[in-house]
Amino acid sequence: MLKMPAKTLYIACLLLATGVAVAGLAKRKAAPEQPLPAYCQAGGSWLALGDKQPVPTSITDVVASAASRDVVLLGEQHDQEDHHRWQLQMLAALYAQRPNMVIGFEMFPRRVQPALDQWVAGKLTAQEFLKQAEWDKVWNFPPQLYMPLFEFARINKIPMRALNVDRALTRMVAEKGWDQVPESAREGVGRPAPALPGYLDFLRSIYQMHQASTPATAAMMPATSDTAFKAFVDSQLTWDRAMAQALSEALIQSDPQRRPLVVGIMGSGHIRQGHGVPHQLAHLGVTKIASLLPVAAGAECQALEPGLASAVYVIPERPQPPDEPPRLGIALTETAQGLTINAVTAGSLAEQTGLRAGDRILEIAGRPSTSSSDAIASIRRQPPGTWLPLRIARGESQLDLVVRFPPRP
Question: In angstroms, rounded to a whole number, what is the distance separating the alpha carbons of residues 49 and 405?
Protein backbone atom coordinates (compact mmCIF):
# COMPACT_ATOMS: atom_id res chain seq x y z
CA MET A 1 0.00 0.00 0.00
CA LEU A 2 1.28 3.45 -0.90
CA LYS A 3 2.29 5.73 1.93
CA MET A 4 2.32 9.49 1.77
CA PRO A 5 5.90 10.76 2.08
CA ALA A 6 6.93 11.73 5.60
CA LYS A 7 7.88 15.20 4.38
CA THR A 8 4.36 15.83 3.13
CA LEU A 9 2.79 14.68 6.36
CA TYR A 10 5.28 16.66 8.41
CA ILE A 11 4.44 19.87 6.52
CA ALA A 12 0.78 19.31 7.37
CA CYS A 13 1.76 18.96 11.04
CA LEU A 14 3.59 22.28 10.80
CA LEU A 15 0.50 23.92 9.34
CA LEU A 16 -1.43 22.78 12.39
CA ALA A 17 1.20 23.83 14.90
CA THR A 18 1.54 27.40 13.64
CA GLY A 19 -2.03 28.18 14.55
CA VAL A 20 -2.55 29.89 11.18
CA ALA A 21 -4.37 26.97 9.62
CA VAL A 22 -6.16 26.30 12.89
CA ALA A 23 -7.66 29.77 13.01
CA GLY A 24 -8.91 29.42 9.47
CA LEU A 25 -10.77 26.21 10.34
CA ALA A 26 -12.76 27.62 13.27
CA LYS A 27 -16.42 26.74 12.85
CA ARG A 28 -18.47 29.82 12.14
CA LYS A 29 -21.49 29.37 14.40
CA ALA A 30 -22.38 33.06 14.45
CA ALA A 31 -24.30 34.15 11.36
CA PRO A 32 -22.34 36.69 9.28
CA GLU A 33 -25.26 39.10 9.25
CA GLN A 34 -25.46 39.26 13.05
CA PRO A 35 -23.84 42.33 14.62
CA LEU A 36 -20.60 41.79 16.49
CA PRO A 37 -21.01 41.59 20.27
CA ALA A 38 -19.55 44.62 22.01
CA TYR A 39 -16.70 42.57 23.47
CA CYS A 40 -15.67 41.47 19.95
CA GLN A 41 -15.53 44.96 18.51
CA ALA A 42 -12.90 46.86 20.46
CA GLY A 43 -11.06 43.96 22.06
CA GLY A 44 -9.13 44.30 25.29
CA SER A 45 -11.54 42.06 27.19
CA TRP A 46 -11.56 38.61 28.78
CA LEU A 47 -14.24 36.01 28.04
CA ALA A 48 -14.95 32.89 30.08
CA LEU A 49 -16.11 30.02 27.86
CA GLY A 50 -16.84 26.79 29.65
CA ASP A 51 -19.63 24.78 27.98
CA LYS A 52 -21.82 27.77 27.17
CA GLN A 53 -21.63 31.02 25.23
CA PRO A 54 -18.85 33.52 26.05
CA VAL A 55 -19.32 35.51 29.24
CA PRO A 56 -17.29 38.67 29.90
CA THR A 57 -15.05 38.28 32.94
CA SER A 58 -12.09 40.06 34.56
CA ILE A 59 -8.37 39.43 34.45
CA THR A 60 -8.48 39.21 38.26
CA ASP A 61 -10.85 36.24 38.12
CA VAL A 62 -8.98 34.60 35.22
CA VAL A 63 -5.60 34.85 36.94
CA ALA A 64 -6.95 33.70 40.31
CA SER A 65 -8.55 30.65 38.73
CA ALA A 66 -5.51 29.79 36.58
CA ALA A 67 -3.07 30.23 39.48
CA SER A 68 -5.01 27.62 41.48
CA ARG A 69 -4.28 24.93 38.85
CA ASP A 70 -1.24 22.71 38.37
CA VAL A 71 -0.67 23.52 34.68
CA VAL A 72 -1.55 26.62 32.68
CA LEU A 73 -1.34 26.49 28.87
CA LEU A 74 -0.87 29.81 27.04
CA GLY A 75 -1.59 29.54 23.32
CA GLU A 76 -0.30 31.59 20.42
CA GLN A 77 -0.20 32.03 16.70
CA HIS A 78 3.56 31.92 16.29
CA ASP A 79 3.98 34.92 14.01
CA GLN A 80 1.69 37.29 15.94
CA GLU A 81 3.69 39.76 18.03
CA ASP A 82 0.69 40.76 20.17
CA HIS A 83 0.16 37.13 21.15
CA HIS A 84 3.63 37.04 22.68
CA ARG A 85 3.07 40.34 24.46
CA TRP A 86 -0.11 38.89 25.91
CA GLN A 87 1.79 35.78 27.02
CA LEU A 88 4.34 37.99 28.78
CA GLN A 89 1.54 39.83 30.56
CA MET A 90 0.06 36.52 31.71
CA LEU A 91 3.41 35.19 32.91
CA ALA A 92 3.88 38.33 35.02
CA ALA A 93 0.36 38.11 36.46
CA LEU A 94 0.67 34.40 37.28
CA TYR A 95 4.16 34.87 38.72
CA ALA A 96 2.80 37.46 41.14
CA GLN A 97 0.43 34.78 42.46
CA ARG A 98 2.69 31.72 42.19
CA PRO A 99 6.39 32.73 42.10
CA ASN A 100 7.37 29.06 42.31
CA MET A 101 7.02 28.54 38.58
CA VAL A 102 8.40 26.51 35.67
CA ILE A 103 7.91 27.63 32.05
CA GLY A 104 7.92 25.08 29.23
CA PHE A 105 8.41 26.06 25.59
CA GLU A 106 7.26 24.19 22.49
CA MET A 107 10.04 25.91 20.54
CA PHE A 108 12.86 23.78 21.94
CA PRO A 109 13.59 20.04 21.58
CA ARG A 110 14.81 18.20 24.66
CA ARG A 111 18.39 17.96 23.41
CA VAL A 112 19.00 21.71 23.86
CA GLN A 113 17.90 21.73 27.53
CA PRO A 114 21.47 22.53 28.73
CA ALA A 115 21.34 25.83 26.82
CA LEU A 116 18.08 26.75 28.56
CA ASP A 117 19.60 25.95 31.95
CA GLN A 118 22.69 28.05 31.28
CA TRP A 119 20.57 30.93 30.02
CA VAL A 120 18.47 31.06 33.18
CA ALA A 121 21.65 30.82 35.25
CA GLY A 122 22.92 33.97 33.51
CA LYS A 123 25.90 32.27 31.87
CA LEU A 124 25.04 33.09 28.25
CA THR A 125 24.46 36.24 26.25
CA ALA A 126 21.32 36.36 24.13
CA GLN A 127 23.36 35.60 21.01
CA GLU A 128 25.12 32.67 22.69
CA PHE A 129 21.81 31.34 23.96
CA LEU A 130 20.15 31.40 20.55
CA LYS A 131 23.20 29.77 18.97
CA GLN A 132 23.51 26.99 21.55
CA ALA A 133 19.75 26.41 21.48
CA GLU A 134 20.07 26.10 17.66
CA TRP A 135 17.19 28.54 17.16
CA ASP A 136 17.67 28.83 13.40
CA LYS A 137 17.40 25.05 13.09
CA VAL A 138 14.65 24.22 15.57
CA TRP A 139 12.19 27.06 14.99
CA ASN A 140 11.01 29.03 11.95
CA PHE A 141 10.10 32.39 13.43
CA PRO A 142 12.10 35.52 14.36
CA PRO A 143 13.71 35.19 17.81
CA GLN A 144 12.80 38.77 18.74
CA LEU A 145 9.18 37.65 19.05
CA TYR A 146 10.16 35.34 21.91
CA MET A 147 13.13 37.04 23.59
CA PRO A 148 10.95 39.03 26.07
CA LEU A 149 9.59 35.70 27.37
CA PHE A 150 13.07 34.25 27.68
CA GLU A 151 14.33 37.40 29.40
CA PHE A 152 11.44 37.25 31.86
CA ALA A 153 12.48 33.74 32.85
CA ARG A 154 16.12 34.77 33.17
CA ILE A 155 15.67 37.88 35.34
CA ASN A 156 13.30 36.01 37.67
CA LYS A 157 15.38 32.79 37.74
CA ILE A 158 12.40 30.75 36.55
CA PRO A 159 13.42 27.32 35.20
CA MET A 160 12.75 26.86 31.49
CA ARG A 161 11.90 23.44 30.07
CA ALA A 162 12.27 22.22 26.49
CA LEU A 163 8.95 20.51 25.69
CA ASN A 164 9.49 19.27 22.15
CA VAL A 165 11.28 16.38 20.47
CA ASP A 166 13.54 16.31 17.44
CA ARG A 167 11.74 16.65 14.15
CA ALA A 168 13.38 13.42 13.09
CA LEU A 169 11.09 11.58 15.52
CA THR A 170 7.84 13.13 14.25
CA ARG A 171 8.99 12.53 10.68
CA MET A 172 9.69 8.88 11.49
CA VAL A 173 6.27 8.47 13.10
CA ALA A 174 4.64 10.19 10.10
CA GLU A 175 6.38 7.74 7.76
CA LYS A 176 6.02 4.50 9.70
CA GLY A 177 3.35 5.02 12.36
CA TRP A 178 3.98 4.92 16.10
CA ASP A 179 4.16 1.14 16.42
CA GLN A 180 6.98 0.85 13.89
CA VAL A 181 9.29 3.35 15.61
CA PRO A 182 11.85 1.61 17.88
CA GLU A 183 11.50 2.48 21.56
CA SER A 184 15.12 3.65 21.57
CA ALA A 185 14.21 6.37 19.03
CA ARG A 186 11.18 7.72 20.93
CA GLU A 187 13.18 10.07 23.20
CA GLY A 188 11.44 8.65 26.26
CA VAL A 189 7.98 9.62 25.01
CA GLY A 190 5.30 7.15 26.03
CA ARG A 191 2.49 5.85 23.86
CA PRO A 192 0.00 8.69 23.30
CA ALA A 193 -3.59 8.43 24.44
CA PRO A 194 -5.91 7.82 21.46
CA ALA A 195 -7.28 10.96 19.84
CA LEU A 196 -10.77 12.07 20.83
CA PRO A 197 -13.37 11.92 18.00
CA GLY A 198 -13.52 15.71 17.73
CA TYR A 199 -9.75 15.89 17.37
CA LEU A 200 -9.80 13.25 14.63
CA ASP A 201 -12.34 15.31 12.70
CA PHE A 202 -10.21 18.41 13.16
CA LEU A 203 -7.00 16.67 12.06
CA ARG A 204 -8.73 15.25 9.01
CA SER A 205 -9.67 18.80 7.99
CA ILE A 206 -6.03 19.86 8.27
CA TYR A 207 -4.88 16.76 6.39
CA GLN A 208 -7.34 17.18 3.53
CA MET A 209 -6.60 20.90 3.30
CA HIS A 210 -2.93 20.12 2.75
CA GLN A 211 -3.75 17.45 0.20
CA ALA A 212 -5.87 19.91 -1.75
CA SER A 213 -2.94 22.34 -1.84
CA THR A 214 -0.52 19.76 -3.26
CA PRO A 215 -1.91 18.23 -6.48
CA ALA A 216 1.00 15.82 -6.85
CA THR A 217 0.25 14.34 -3.44
CA ALA A 218 -3.47 14.15 -4.12
CA ALA A 219 -2.80 12.31 -7.38
CA MET A 220 -0.54 9.84 -5.60
CA MET A 221 -3.04 8.91 -2.91
CA PRO A 222 -6.76 9.38 -2.31
CA ALA A 223 -7.70 11.69 0.56
CA THR A 224 -9.47 8.81 2.26
CA SER A 225 -6.36 6.69 2.70
CA ASP A 226 -6.61 5.33 6.22
CA THR A 227 -2.95 4.34 6.33
CA ALA A 228 -1.58 7.76 5.48
CA PHE A 229 -4.08 9.59 7.67
CA LYS A 230 -3.35 7.33 10.65
CA ALA A 231 0.36 8.07 10.28
CA PHE A 232 -0.42 11.80 10.25
CA VAL A 233 -2.54 11.43 13.40
CA ASP A 234 0.20 9.39 15.10
CA SER A 235 2.71 12.13 14.32
CA GLN A 236 0.50 14.84 15.77
CA LEU A 237 -0.30 12.79 18.88
CA THR A 238 3.43 12.20 19.41
CA TRP A 239 3.96 15.96 19.33
CA ASP A 240 1.14 16.53 21.85
CA ARG A 241 2.24 13.67 24.09
CA ALA A 242 5.87 14.83 24.19
CA MET A 243 4.87 18.28 25.43
CA ALA A 244 2.34 16.94 27.90
CA GLN A 245 4.86 14.50 29.30
CA ALA A 246 7.51 17.20 29.77
CA LEU A 247 4.98 19.42 31.57
CA SER A 248 3.86 16.54 33.75
CA GLU A 249 7.43 15.63 34.66
CA ALA A 250 8.19 19.23 35.68
CA LEU A 251 5.24 19.00 38.05
CA ILE A 252 5.71 15.49 39.45
CA GLN A 253 9.48 15.63 39.90
CA SER A 254 9.21 18.64 42.22
CA ASP A 255 8.79 18.70 46.00
CA PRO A 256 5.24 17.37 46.68
CA GLN A 257 4.89 19.92 49.46
CA ARG A 258 5.81 22.82 47.19
CA ARG A 259 4.79 22.02 43.65
CA PRO A 260 5.40 24.77 41.09
CA LEU A 261 2.89 26.29 38.75
CA VAL A 262 3.88 24.80 35.37
CA VAL A 263 3.16 27.07 32.39
CA GLY A 264 3.30 25.84 28.79
CA ILE A 265 3.95 28.20 25.86
CA MET A 266 2.75 26.60 22.61
CA GLY A 267 0.70 26.95 19.44
CA SER A 268 -3.03 27.30 19.99
CA GLY A 269 -3.70 24.23 17.83
CA HIS A 270 -2.26 22.04 20.59
CA ILE A 271 -4.69 23.48 23.15
CA ARG A 272 -8.06 24.17 21.53
CA GLN A 273 -11.10 22.23 22.76
CA GLY A 274 -8.87 20.30 25.18
CA HIS A 275 -8.03 17.87 22.38
CA GLY A 276 -4.24 18.01 22.14
CA VAL A 277 -1.94 18.60 25.09
CA PRO A 278 -4.77 18.89 27.69
CA HIS A 279 -6.08 15.46 26.69
CA GLN A 280 -2.62 13.91 26.95
CA LEU A 281 -2.05 15.60 30.32
CA ALA A 282 -5.31 14.14 31.64
CA HIS A 283 -4.19 10.69 30.47
CA LEU A 284 -1.03 11.22 32.55
CA GLY A 285 -3.10 12.06 35.63
CA VAL A 286 -2.78 15.86 35.46
CA THR A 287 -6.32 17.23 35.46
CA LYS A 288 -6.04 20.65 37.12
CA ILE A 289 -5.40 22.53 33.87
CA ALA A 290 -6.23 26.03 32.67
CA SER A 291 -6.15 26.71 28.91
CA LEU A 292 -5.95 30.39 27.95
CA LEU A 293 -5.94 31.62 24.35
CA PRO A 294 -5.68 34.95 22.54
CA VAL A 295 -8.19 35.60 19.75
CA ALA A 296 -8.50 38.50 17.34
CA ALA A 297 -11.27 41.04 17.67
CA GLY A 298 -13.88 40.77 14.96
CA ALA A 299 -14.88 37.58 13.12
CA GLU A 300 -12.59 35.22 15.06
CA CYS A 301 -14.03 36.46 18.34
CA GLN A 302 -17.58 36.19 17.01
CA ALA A 303 -16.99 32.54 16.03
CA LEU A 304 -15.91 31.37 19.50
CA GLU A 305 -17.16 27.92 20.41
CA PRO A 306 -18.09 26.61 23.86
CA GLY A 307 -15.26 24.56 25.33
CA LEU A 308 -12.58 26.16 23.16
CA ALA A 309 -10.54 27.05 26.27
CA SER A 310 -10.99 28.01 29.90
CA ALA A 311 -10.95 31.66 28.86
CA VAL A 312 -9.85 33.81 25.93
CA TYR A 313 -8.46 37.30 25.67
CA VAL A 314 -9.70 39.42 22.76
CA ILE A 315 -6.70 41.10 21.13
CA PRO A 316 -7.54 44.60 19.84
CA GLU A 317 -6.91 45.22 16.17
CA ARG A 318 -3.66 47.00 15.37
CA PRO A 319 -3.53 49.78 12.78
CA GLN A 320 -1.03 48.75 10.15
CA PRO A 321 1.49 51.50 9.38
CA PRO A 322 2.34 52.15 5.71
CA ASP A 323 5.88 50.97 6.30
CA GLU A 324 4.92 47.66 7.94
CA PRO A 325 7.72 45.21 7.08
CA PRO A 326 6.66 43.09 4.09
CA ARG A 327 5.86 39.42 4.58
CA LEU A 328 5.99 36.69 1.97
CA GLY A 329 3.61 34.36 3.80
CA ILE A 330 5.82 31.29 4.13
CA ALA A 331 7.14 29.05 6.90
CA LEU A 332 10.78 27.98 6.54
CA THR A 333 12.94 25.15 7.84
CA GLU A 334 16.68 24.69 7.56
CA THR A 335 17.27 21.14 6.34
CA ALA A 336 20.21 19.18 5.02
CA GLN A 337 18.90 19.97 1.52
CA GLY A 338 18.80 23.72 2.18
CA LEU A 339 16.30 26.38 3.22
CA THR A 340 12.95 24.68 2.60
CA ILE A 341 9.48 26.20 2.40
CA ASN A 342 7.15 24.18 4.63
CA ALA A 343 3.93 26.09 4.03
CA VAL A 344 2.56 28.89 1.85
CA THR A 345 -0.26 31.07 3.17
CA ALA A 346 -3.26 31.32 0.88
CA GLY A 347 -3.52 34.70 -0.84
CA SER A 348 -0.02 35.72 0.20
CA LEU A 349 2.74 37.29 -1.90
CA ALA A 350 4.42 33.90 -1.94
CA GLU A 351 1.38 32.23 -3.48
CA GLN A 352 0.98 35.06 -6.01
CA THR A 353 4.64 34.65 -6.96
CA GLY A 354 4.25 30.91 -7.54
CA LEU A 355 6.14 29.58 -4.53
CA ARG A 356 5.06 26.16 -3.26
CA ALA A 357 5.52 24.05 -0.17
CA GLY A 358 8.60 21.90 -0.74
CA ASP A 359 10.51 24.52 -2.74
CA ARG A 360 14.08 25.20 -1.58
CA ILE A 361 15.36 28.77 -1.61
CA LEU A 362 18.85 28.89 -3.08
CA GLU A 363 19.41 32.63 -3.54
CA ILE A 364 17.77 35.88 -2.54
CA ALA A 365 18.73 38.91 -4.65
CA GLY A 366 21.65 36.93 -6.08
CA ARG A 367 23.10 35.94 -2.71
CA PRO A 368 23.09 32.38 -1.29
CA SER A 369 20.49 31.90 1.42
CA THR A 370 20.92 29.17 4.02
CA SER A 371 19.70 30.83 7.24
CA SER A 372 15.99 31.42 7.90
CA SER A 373 16.78 34.48 10.02
CA ASP A 374 18.83 36.03 7.20
CA ALA A 375 16.09 35.25 4.70
CA ILE A 376 13.43 36.88 6.88
CA ALA A 377 15.64 39.93 7.41
CA SER A 378 16.22 40.27 3.64
CA ILE A 379 12.49 40.14 2.94
CA ARG A 380 11.59 42.63 5.64
CA ARG A 381 14.21 45.11 4.41
CA GLN A 382 12.57 45.22 0.98
CA PRO A 383 11.03 48.68 0.29
CA PRO A 384 7.41 48.89 -0.96
CA GLY A 385 6.96 48.88 -4.72
CA THR A 386 10.22 47.01 -5.45
CA TRP A 387 11.01 43.58 -6.88
CA LEU A 388 12.99 40.82 -5.18
CA PRO A 389 14.50 38.04 -7.33
CA LEU A 390 14.59 34.51 -5.90
CA ARG A 391 16.27 31.38 -7.20
CA ILE A 392 14.60 28.20 -6.00
CA ALA A 393 15.00 24.47 -6.46
CA ARG A 394 11.85 22.50 -7.23
CA GLY A 395 12.53 18.83 -7.56
CA GLU A 396 15.43 18.49 -9.99
CA SER A 397 14.87 21.91 -11.56
CA GLN A 398 15.95 25.43 -10.65
CA LEU A 399 13.60 28.36 -11.21
CA ASP A 400 14.02 32.12 -11.09
CA LEU A 401 11.02 33.93 -9.62
CA VAL A 402 10.44 37.59 -8.82
CA VAL A 403 8.44 38.77 -5.80
CA ARG A 404 6.67 42.04 -6.63
CA PHE A 405 6.07 43.95 -3.40
CA PRO A 406 3.04 46.25 -3.65
CA PRO A 407 3.63 50.01 -3.50
CA ARG A 408 2.92 51.93 -0.33
CA PRO A 409 -0.81 52.84 -0.16
Answer: 41
| Residues 272 and 339 placed together within one structural domain of the fold | no
Question: Taking the CA of residue 109 as centre, how many other CA atoms within 13 Å lie in the half-sphere pointing to its CB?
Answer: 18
The partner residues of 334 in beta bridges, in order of sequence, read: 339
Region of 285 please: left (phi>0), alpha (psi -120 to 50) or beta.
left
Same domain, residue pair 269 and 347: no
Q: Which of 267, 287, 315 is the last residue of a domain?
A: 315
Structural domain containing residue 360:
330-404
pTM as predicted? 0.74
The residues facing 296 across adjacent strands are 315
Mean pLDDT of the chain: 84
Q: Mean pLDDT, to the nearest integer, of 319-347?
A: 79
How does strand 397-404 pair with strand 387-394? antiparallel
Are residues 38 and 219 in contact, defined by beta-carbon separation less than 8 angstroms?
A: no
pLDDT: which is higher, 294 or 363 = 294
Number of Cβ atoms within 10 Å of the Cβ of 331: 24
Percent of the chain clearing pLDDT 70 (strictly above) = 85
Phi, psi values for residue 69, rounded to 5°? -90, 175
What tens digit of pLDDT does each residue of 231-243 get? 889 889 999 999 9
Residue 320 included in any domain: no
43 and 151, same domain (yes or no): yes
How far apart, in Å, are the Cα atoms of 13 and each of 2, 116, 225?
20, 25, 17
d(CA 109, CA 138): 7
Q: What angle in degrees, to the nearest 10, is found between the helix axes of 147-155 and 113-120?
A: 60
